[in-house]
Write a sequence for this structure.
């Protein structure tokens, strides 16, 4: 049976102890993101209007445009190819990270199919409607209704699920991964692909799916699978 680490587990603490001691660290973030998403509903239209009519610095536009692949399948595959070439544990690491990112994206798309929301770029006037008018019917596909797919942001969901998986395997780079995921979300607002609330809820979903996969799913598929606790692993303190 394949082991996640060939010599020693990534953490000395039993998984159950890590989960109990780090519950706030794991789940506070999505709770905060959902709270911000609720607040963002009152700001979505104003922000979208400013994005559509305002100008952004060239350096910011280039940053978000070039970071977007971190939340896209092509970018994920490219990074997985690098991991396969550089990490001797690739036979386990690549499917764990890749499928975690894929599952996050699928979860987001299932919600998109369940609740339609018009994308900001498809609206002409943000100031004459309410934020609730941007939402459409539940399960629009079932009723043959052509709906938008704005809620939540799948790029952001994928990016955060991907970042969580990468952070578990490579804890020294956790802040880099999370910053990249955040920039992906900002880029989706800047490109008028999503409202700010879409990004907030997408981040919460991606984080939650990522940790559920790493804490619950993979240890059951591979009983010898060990995950890294970001706050107790020696590598994270360097």
């Amino acid at each position: 049976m394949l082991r996640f680490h060939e010599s020693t587990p990534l953490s000395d603490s039993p998984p159950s102890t890590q989960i109990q001691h780090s519950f706030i660290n794991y789940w506070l973030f999505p709770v905060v993101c959902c709270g911000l998403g609720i607040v963002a509903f009152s700001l979505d239209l104003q922000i979208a209007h400013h994005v559509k009519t305002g100008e952004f610095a060239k350096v910011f536009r280039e940053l978000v445009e070039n970071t977007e692949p971190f939340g896209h399948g092509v970018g994920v595959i490219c990074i997985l190819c690098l991991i396969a070439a550089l990490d001797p544990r690739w036979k386990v690491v690549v499917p764990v990270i890749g499928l975690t990112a894929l599952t996050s994206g699928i979860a987001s798309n299932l919600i998109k199919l369940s609740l339609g929301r018009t994308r900001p770029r498809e609206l002409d006037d943000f100031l004459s409607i309410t934020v609730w008018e941007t939402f459409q019917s539940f399960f629009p596909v079932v009723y043959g209704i052509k709906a938008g797919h704005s809620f939540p942001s799948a790029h952001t969901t994928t990016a955060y699920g991907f970042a969580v998986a990468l952070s578990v395997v490579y804890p020294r780079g956790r802040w880099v991964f999370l910053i990249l995921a955040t920039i992906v979300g900002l880029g989706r607002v800047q490109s008028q692909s999503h409202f700010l609330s879409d990004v907030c809820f997408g981040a919460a979903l991606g984080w939650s799916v990522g940790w559920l996969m790493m804490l619950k799913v993979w240890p059951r598929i591979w009983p010898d699978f060990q995950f890294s606790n970001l706050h107790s692993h020696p590598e994270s303190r360097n």
